[in-house]
From TrEMBL:
Gene3D superfamilies: Peptidase S8/S53 domain (3.40.50.200). Residues 3-215 form the Peptidase S8/S53 domain. Belongs to the peptidase S8 family. It comes from Dorea formicigenerans. Keywords: Hydrolase, Protease, Serine protease. This is Peptidase. GO terms for biological process: proteolysis.
Length: 460
């Protein structure tokens, strides 16, 4: 059996300690851009030991991506991934990540790009319990610590974590047994080892989604993607998108695309070798393929399974109501950018299915009562784990969020102008009229919203 190359992207590996527990030397070490200090923080070494002891036929490689305080730079990830591909390494262990919302887009773009080049990334989620990047992404196998190896269904719904695995491993050092601490960092390399063994047993497996599906089937579980965040290059079939906002991925020709966006479920069989995002109105079953699939049914399932919230949502809620003539998705993406520029993490919600293509949160409001009753629970946990500072929700006439709004924005189309009214506690705070709508006009609306929000903070 050929040995499998596995890279540990961490703070380096102490080969003397590997030898003490009977493991072979690292095949190649790369120090990246991190200074060569004495390693008093054995994080990478421990990860390498766990992989080596649980996947005997692995050839271990090391790339120093974080320093000995556990800190690193997101920008160095690309160099590390390039190094892996240059050395024909397909399986990567990342026992670290970030929970900062501003890092999300950069890391997602990198992960999707390299996943489509065949890189398989196993990542530990944050020990803080918050949503972590890249562990939460569909193109990554996210892991948290638990006593046994199994599916983490609750973690997948709440923060994109796929599996729970043991982390308190016993390691033999020259006659002494040492037990590692409970940590998500040491659960991820165990799953990396299991993925490595699977890849050696099943040589046809060559990408992350095949490994995910195989491991889920092993535990008799269903591999569901609740957020279609995996797209690097997407092809949109048959329709022109409604919004003028930019989608989060590159729009490509059908032949180049890793994902097709379909509106007709009868076309599924034609694209069995590609991932599918289905935005049609008919209910569709997930096709039996080795690729990712998303439809509004996935989001409904996620909402229905939400745990009961512990308390009321305690962050500001801005409700924006408009008619069908307004570009709701554009409004939401532009306002979110404004808040992000000021350091605020806005959880932006739309009732349009198409919104998932713009990295917005799709909520199917016009549905049955069971879903409506669970939206509050869903939003509570999502905004908690994402550490959101506020909610911005775009709805149309006769729709309801199911959560009380702190600020209400009414957008009305006139013959020549767009009228905007902003209310707080049912009191009209301001009214604006614009002949044209662009970034400058959105900024004026944002400035007004921020003034109202900060006034409330000052009063407290």
């Amino acid at each position: 059996m050929n040995k499998l190359k596995i890279a540990v992207l961490d703070n380096g590996v102490d080969e003397k300690l590997l030898a003490l527990c009977g493991l072979p030397d690292i095949i190649q070490q790369n120090k990246g851009n991190i200074s060569d200090e004495e390693d008093l923080f054995l994080h990478g070494t421990n990860c390498a030991m766990i992989i080596g002891l649980n996947c005997a036929d692995a050839e271990l490689y090391s790339y120093k991506l974080i320093d000995n305080t556990g800190k690193g730079n997101v920008d160095d990830l690309k160099s590390a991934f390039d190094w892996c591909l240059m050395n024909n390494i397909r399986l990567v262990n990342l026992s670290f990540g970030t929970t900062h919302f501003k890092d999300k887009g950069i890391i997602r773009q990198l992960v999707n790009q390299y996943a489509n080049k065949g890189l398989i990334i196993i990542a530990a989620t944050a020990n803080s319990g918050y949503t972590a990047f890249p562990a939460s992404f569909s193109n990554v196998i996210g892991v948290k610590a638990k006593d046994t190896f199994n599916i983490d269904a609750e973690g997948l719904r709440d923060k994109g974590v796929d599996f729970a695995a043991p982390s308190e491993h016993k390691i033999w050092f020259g006659g002494n047994d040492i037990t590692l601490q409970k940590s998500n960092s040491y659960a991820a390399p165990y799953v990396t080892a299991m993925a490595g063994r699977l890849m050696m047993e099943q040589s046809w497996i060559n990408n992350v989604w095949q490994i995910k599906k195989h491991l889920y089937q092993k535990f008799r579980g269903k591999c569901v993607q609740y957020i279609p965040d995996w797209i690097e290059k997407g092809w949109i079939a048959g329709k022109v998108l409604k919004s003028k906002a930019e989608v989060y991925f590159e729009v490509a020709a059908k032949e180049e695309a890793d994902t097709v966006i379909l509106y007709d479920k009868n076309e599924f069989n034609e694209y069995r070798e590609k991932h599918i995002v289905y935005l049609g109105n008919e209910i569709a079953e997930q096709p039996d393929t080795q690729c990712f699939f998303w439809s509004r049914r996935n989001r409904k399932e996620q909402i229905l399974c939400s745990r009961i919230k512990k308390e009321s949502i305690n962050i500001p809620v801005i409700l924006i109501k408009s008619d069908k003539e307004q570009d709701q998705i554009w409004w939401l993406t532009e306002l979110r950018k404004c808040f992000e520029a000021e350091g605020y993490n806005a959880y932006a919600i739309s009732t349009e299915q198409e919104s998932v293509l713009y990295d917005l949160e799709y909520i199917p409001f016009a549905v049955d009562e069971d879903i409506s009753n669970k939206i509050g629970d869903f939003l509570y946990w999502q905004t908690y784990y994402n550490q959101s500072d506020l909610i911005i929700c775009g709805i149309q006439e006769k729709e309801s969020i199911g959560v009380e709004a702190d600020i209400f924005v009414r957008i009305e189309n006139g013959k020549k102008q767009t009228g905007i009214q902003i209310y707080c506690d049912k009191i009209k705070k301001t009214q604006m009229c614009f002949g044209t709508l662009g970034e400058q006009q959105i900024k004026k609306v944002y400035d007004c919203l921020l003034t109202i929000l900060t006034e409330d903070e000052d009063e407290e």
